[in-house]
Fold:
Amino acid sequence: MSFTSIRTRLIVLFLSVASIITALQGIEGYLSARNALQAERAALASGLSARLKISLPGLLWNFNITQVEQVLQAEAESPDVAGILIRSDGKLVSGLTRDTTGKPVAAREDSKPGGDKFSVALEFNDGGTLKPVGTVETSLSRERMDQALSRQLMRAITMIMVLAALPVAAGVEALHAYSL
Structure:
C-alpha cells in the first residue's frame, strides 16, 4: 500500500484532526482550570482584606496584641496565606509567616514572605473620625495553584498522547494488514 493512496491520506487526516481536537480540549481544560483558580485566589484575597480591615483596627487602637495574634492565627489556617505583617509607623507590630515546613510562625522585622503581596490601610473609627493605625501586608502563595495547574497540564498532555497513540497504532496495523 502506497503512502500516496487515498486510504493513507484519509488515515493521516483522521489522525491529524483527532490530535488537534484533543489538543484543543486539553488547552480549554487548562484555561478553564486556571481561570477558576485565579477567581478563587481573588475571592480569598478580597475576603481576607475585608476581614482584616474590619477586625484589626480596634484591636490595634486598644493595643490588644494578644487578640491581634489570634486573628492572624485564624487567618493563617488557609494554606494559601504565606504571611501577614502588621506595621504601624513603618515598624512591625505583629505578624505571621510560614517556616520551611509550612507552619505559621511569628514574623520578625526582616520577614519577607513570598508570594503575591497586597496591602490594606487600617483605620480606626473614633466617633466618626477615621484615624490611621497602620497597614496590613498580606502575601498569598501561588504554590497550590501552580501545582494544580501542573497536574491539569500533565492530564491534558497524557490525554493527547493516549488519544493520538491509539489511532496511530490502529493506522499502522491497518497499513501493515493491507500491505500483506
Observations:
- The mean pLDDT is 87.
